[in-house]
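User: I'm curious whether this sequence folds into something compact or stays loose and floppy. Could you predict its structure so I can see for myself?
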Amino acid sequence: INQAGIYQGSPVQMENNYSLFNKIGIAVSRGGFETDDYEKSITYLKLLKQKGIRMISQNGGNEEYLQMYGDYYQDCIYGNEYNMEINGKLPNITEEEKDEVWNRYYNESYVNARLLADKYNKTLVYAGISGGATDWYDRIARQGLWNLPDILSVHVYSGTASPDNLSQTQADYIWGMEAGLVRTQNAILKYGPKTWQINETGFYTTVGRGSVDIRLQADYNMRCNILSVAYGAESVAAYCFYDFSNSGIGTVLDDMEWHYGHFYLPDYFGRTLPKPAAAAFAALTRYLESVEKSTDTTMSRSQVSESAKYSSKADGLRRVFELQTKEYGKVFYAWSNAYPHQLDQGQYRIAQMPWKEIWQGTEDVVFDAAGATVRVVDVMGNEKVYTANNGKVTIPLSGSPVIIIGAR
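Assistant: Here's the prediction. I'll summarize afterward.
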């Protein structure tokens, strides 16, 4: 998970952040460190290193960072979402002028960063590519820089639409989460094998009706995690850990950038309260932390794939993924879009309590049972056991993902 919020004036002690990381099962964290707060940053980094949590350092390609903190991370990112910045600033210039600007960014942000990474023996990660934009991938390749960094970093969002909403998966739609994964996969097939990471994805929970609610955030965030690894991402860093704080004295209720957190902004008493997304993340890691690595070195980085047997990807109504784990063998991760959320129907959300079912219907799906019973774990970690009848079980699927153990 991105540790955004930790260094945004949060009053919470570093040791408490570390404890929360452990409780919900974080294995990879992306973040930056303040050069004027060296002792607190080093204390925190030592804790992460002792636990074996992999640190991806934002702006870690900066030489000052490398000298101060380089002993505590291997992966370093230089810069962030340049393609969004450039496209926003340059709407009315010629292609020749745009090429000149892109060339300057490439040389400053990638070529020089490569020299520093080699000097300090670090792994260089591309600056996050907003939306998995095809034009950015194409320009990188034209410049001969596809193989310069070691890892691609991709940021994919869907606004308030479901991550796999078919209407959002058009090739030229920048804010379709799965569309960004498709564009990245296509670029890798076109330009050559590449290790890549999702370093930002998630959903915001502002107070207005034009956002997801806190329970829907949990359902959609977990979909993002599974979709990312199924498309071949090496790791997924959801955005973000805490809601943002304004120097520790409050937040902006209607600004989406402040409300992507898995945890609420720590309150004035120092209490840190989880959103349902934090509980869902903990359930996901508890059951699926042993997903085995794939032997395929070109695309898939883990044994997660869409099930040809149960999924109906063509019409988008049902998504079922196979995962190979050490404890349970093959398990399935599934949800149904047969009854989409109001936000996918062009309506405002209806605010409800997080324990109330937000989905309007279920699709009954028949699974083959491997034994006498099949266990189904909901997104919050609650288990239900189904007894097989003639070797089959019928499981109701909604838009909230479930883990299915004991099916085949």
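Summary: The longest strand covers residues 318-325. The mean pLDDT is 84.
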